Amino acid sequence: MKIIDATDHVLGRLSSFVAKMLLNGEEVIIINAEKSVITGNKYYIFNKYMQKFKRGSVRKGPRFPRMPDRILRRTVRGMLPYQTPHGKSAYRKLKVYIGVPEGIDISKAEKIEKAMYTKIKNKVTLGEVSKYLGAKF
């Protein structure tokens, strides 16, 4: 079981590394999902995620999540073959949390150096995107 602290990790890079771990059979827990970073122009990112959120209808979908833990989970799902039995079992081994829950020891949390934020000027945290979409956490 690996515990990963998502603080200052780029969302897409983190998701690809986590997807690879899950496909190799590891159980992964991600904490501080709201502190992960999306690089790029702030207003472009907000508009892109709002279009994803407003797509479809209330009854039929597709439904895009508002909460940062659910958005990160959905991003990892996009990098897994989640419609096959192997992908489904891998996706079930992923747990994502906002903040740090009580039962998890922070000292065991790892950071993935290749997925870290490298001082690019344009960035938005996943928490800011979620609040723009209307999430209350």
Please outline what is shown here.
By secondary structure, the protein is an alpha/beta fold.
How would you portray this structure in words?
The chain has 137 residues and is of the alpha/beta class. Helix content is 38%, strand content 12%. It has five helices and five strands. The strands form two sheets. The protein has a three-stranded parallel beta sheet. A two-stranded antiparallel ribbon has the order 3-5. Helix 1 crosses helix 3. The mean pLDDT is 95.
Name the features.
Ribosomal Protein L13p, Chain: A, alpha/beta, two-stranded antiparallel sheet, 137 residues, single chain
Q: Strands across the major sheet, in which order?
A: 1-2-4
**Tally of helical runs:** 5
Estimate percent helicity: 25-40%
H/E topology pattern: EHEEHHHEEH
Strand content: 5-15%
CATH superfamily: Ribosomal protein L13
Tally of individual domains? 1
User: What is the 3D shape?
Assistant: globular
Rg from Cα: 15 Å
What CATH first level would be assigned? Alpha Beta
CATH architecture classification name: Alpha-Beta Complex
Low-confidence stretches: none
Q: In the CATH scheme, what's the topology name?
A: Ribosomal Protein L13p, Chain: A
Q: Compute the separation of the termini in Å.
A: 26 Å
Major beta-sheet overview: 3 strands, parallel
- Number-wise, the strands total 5
